Amino acid sequence: MQRFTGKTAVVTGAASGIGAATALRLAAEGATVVLADIADAAGEDVVKDIVADGGRAAYVHCDVSSQEGWQQLRDCTHEFAGPPDVVHNNAFIHITAAAHELTDDGWDREIAVNLKALYLGARIFVDDLRSTRGCFVATSSVHANFGLPGHPAYAASKGGICALMRQLAVEYGPEVRFNSVLPGPILTDVWDEVSEADQRLSARATALGRLGAAEEVAAAVAFLASADASYITGADLVVDGGWSVKKESK
Ligand code: NAD
Question: Is the pLDDT reported for residue 53 higher than 80?
Answer without folding.
Answer: yes
